[in-house]
Amino acid sequence: MKRTAAFLPLLALLAACSGTPSQPGAPAEKSLAIATMTLPQSLDPKDANGSALPFFQAVYDTLVKREPDGTFSPMLATGWTYDAAMTELKLTLRADVTFDDGSPFDAAAVKANMERFVKGGGAQAKTLNDVKTIEVVDATHVTLKLAQPNPALLYYLSDAAGLMANPADFAKGEQLKTQPGGTGPYELDQGQTVIGTKWVFKRTAKYWGTRLPYDTVSISYFDNETAIVNGIRTKQLNAALIQDADQQIAVEGAAGVKTVKQDFDFQGILLFDRAGMVTPRLKDPAVRQGLNHAIDRQTMLDKIRQGRGQITGQVFGPATKGYLPELDTFYGFDQAKARELIKEPFELKLPRIPAIVSDALAASLQTDLAAVGVKLVWEDVDAGSAIQKIFRDRAYSGMVMNMGQSPADWVVVGELVLPGAFNMFGYSDDTVKKLLPKIQAKGEQADLQALNRHLVEDGWFLPFYRMTYLHVSDGSVTITPQDGMAVPSIYNYAPAG
Asked: Where is the signal peptide (predicted)?
């Protein structure tokens, strides 16, 4: 398949969204045109991650479905049971599902997918780290045996780890990257798709599940929200997520546009270097506490986000058991106290990814930190080099990120507290080591709140605020936000009316 540059002029991309007129007398096809600023690494399930999930949901089903309210319901698995120790999960599978080539979906396919997912080493591979063996009982039953309890396992099976591809494609090199094969409601239209710019999915002829309302779904990639807003206004695009506050204000006034608000991501500095391996001063909790007191969260929210959000000092969101309302305002803006805690000046170098760190945000943080003796140095990093420099070279002590506040407490722990991409140096301390086994075994609210309070008081992170996002449509689509995701699932769109 021909590859083109990811960034095309708006006019050309919108023209491509218009499709082919129906023949006279033929039923009008229902099509959905979604805009996104998330570029999938590929369409191979081992590469699935974050807000790219809808690309995968179009062609692959998950073992468990996560409903819009966050509850779990059957999908490829019709039922599941845990043993008393929570170290054995038994799944019952559908017996009437086939892959795109007609081969059966069965327990052997589940085993093959999960083992490949872990070996693939993608961003979400670690979510199955606790699964030590996958036992095929018979065609419709599989047992996952865990080394230790994983309270978020069902959540992961409704996400990237649960996507089921056709094992027949595993031996075909990198075919799945551009030619996905699954059991899902759509298949990739190779003729209409331009990888890197626009992906077009057409309805499969014999989908086993509930028929979704659209015959064709396209997902187009944009590198700026101004272009997306223009597409929504002119009705060349049907649906999108708008994050930038100024663009939200711009689109809200457009004729016919429908909007739905959602608070999901928090923005803040994820401090990786709590052991002081890159920036020695960060080893001192008092310094990290000083950084938290140094920033004026409310002014940042008012000026950068136009007040659209809520200030916070914690990474656990309101839907979690670990959330404590008082921790949102634990660190008041107090630069005198910040200077007292930080004591000696030092330099802090962070990567600047333009899509995340705007000019206004970069300047605000530099000004606030300079006032307490911290020289913040931004190093511009483009999308192509970000992963290498940040996560492989480990060149920085932290980074500004927009992070989803999952409603599943153990997902928060897995992403931010356990060793992994956002705890790349594997830092821990005695309090965390004491609490995690208790949380893993029982997940009691008191332990989760104790962990959250400790992370805040010890300055593990530097959150700014939770951001209000805006789901927008051209008026022809009803959008239902997805619990646990910033973007809606592919199942959450329906014709308005």
From this structure: 1-18
pLDDT digits (tens, 9 = 90+) for 227-239: 999 999 999 999 9
pLDDT at 245 over 90: yes
Question: What residue type is assigned to position 360 of the chain?
Answer: A
Interval 298-340: pLDDT, tens: 999 999 999 999 999 999 999 999 999 999 999 999 999 999 9
Question: What's the rounded Cα separation, in Å, for the pair 410 and 322?
Answer: 10
CATH of span 264-468: 3.10.105.10
Q: What does the buried/exposed string (b/e) look like for 264-293 if buried means 16 or more CB atoms within 10 Å of the residue's CB? A: bbbbbbbbbbbeeebbebbebeebbbbbbb
pTM above 0.85, yes or no: yes
Angle (CA) 115 404 197, round 5°: 75
Looking at the DSSP bridge assignments, the partners of residue 348 are 376
For residue 483, give the 3-state DSSP assignment.
coil
- Domain 1-59+184-257+474-497 in this protein, CATH class: alpha beta
Tokens standing for residue 346:
């030092």
CA count, 13 A, side-chain hemisphere, 475: 11
